[in-house]
Write a structure and sequence with these properties.
This protein is of the alpha/beta class. It has ten helices and eleven strands.
């Protein structure tokens, strides 16, 4: 069951690994003034109404920074992001780390800037009375993780297990859940529970529990950032200009995001920073290991 469910995500990644890298030559011309508009998508927001509600302020700020009209383009998932980039339907997309790996494996999308996240790492927790004291002790056990393919709730934990020399396909049983409740761990249905750290803390608070009741067994390294990518159909000089302007005005742009209540905690203390493709190798390792 695990292998079948993972296969769809892996195929999205593997199917595009032969995509060529962007080789557009850069030049020193300023091209933003020649663009009548740029089309912006956000991979985890479905529908124009939600885009406007959650990223309307950011769009306005970005229009001011780039001095170019920004139009929203709606996509539902990484598959649609890749297709829209390939077809030239969108110019800039904000995507999560796992989606970045999938999209760049299937397209020539170019990273513009990363949107950092403070205290962004995965955890695996157990019950206080558990005899599990290390990741190696999870062999033969059952662990609940989040939705397959989600960076903080699944990919980070998979990398931790692999680094502990456990085979996630054969050494333990993995159950996936789309919610963030501790119910299965509380009831003894699973031996361990893994989510991104802020979901763990929220679950404890919501359920009136403490870290002493459900201690963290292990944490991942800091996870890669969300990232803005550009279509390879944009001139490289234009991408450079967009990057430079976004970094120069990073405080203004980030403030337009964190001022939205939905993101006030998620992106607290965030900033914009140069995006390094190698930061996402840990995610690639997980996908490749599950071939």
């Amino acid at each position: 069951m695990f292998r079948r469910r993972f296969l769809g995500y892996f195929l999205l990644f593997a199917g595009g690994c032969t995509a060529a890298k962007n080789n557009i030559d850069s030049n020193n011309n300023s091209l933003l003034k020649e663009k009548q508009k740029l089309r912006l998508a956000v991979s985890d927001v479905q529908g124009m109404a939600d885009l406007e509600q959650n990223y309307g302020l950011f769009r306005t700020a970005l229009e001011e920074v780039l001095e170019t009209k920004i139009e929203f383009f709606s996509v539902d998932n990484a598959v649609e992001v890749a297709a829209a980039l390939q077809l030239g339907l969108v110019d800039i997309v904000l995507i999560g780390p796992s989606e970045y790996v999938i999209v760049t494996a299937r397209t020539n999308a170019v990273p513009i800037v990363a949107l950092t996240r403070h205290n962004y790492f995965s955890i695996i927790a157990v019950r206080a009375d558990s005899d599990i004291k290390s990741l190696a002790d999870l062999k033969g056990k059952t662990i609940e993780l989040g939705e397959i393919g989600i960076t903080g709730n699944y990919i980070g934990q998979m990398k931790m297990l692999m680094d502990a020399e456990l085979n996630p396909q054969s050494d333990l049983k993995i159950i996936n859940s789309i919610d963030y409740k501790l119910k299965a761990l509380k009831n003894g249905e699973v031996d361990a529970w893994g989510r991104v750290v802020h979901r763990y803390k929220k679950a404890l608070k919501d359920e009136g529990e403490s870290e002493e009741d459900y201690p963290i067994l292990a944490r991942s390294i800091d996870l890669p950032n969300d990232v803005f990518v550009a279509s390879s159909q944009l001139e490289s000089a234009l991408v450079v200009e967009i990057r430079d302007r976004m970094l120069k005005n990073k405080d203004k742009l980030v403030q337009s995001i964190v001022s939205v209540p939905t993101f006030s905690a998620k992106f607290k203390d965030s900033t914009l920073a140069p995006a390094n493709d190698s930061d996402y190798d840990m995610i690639r390792e997980v996908y490749k290991a599950m071939e």
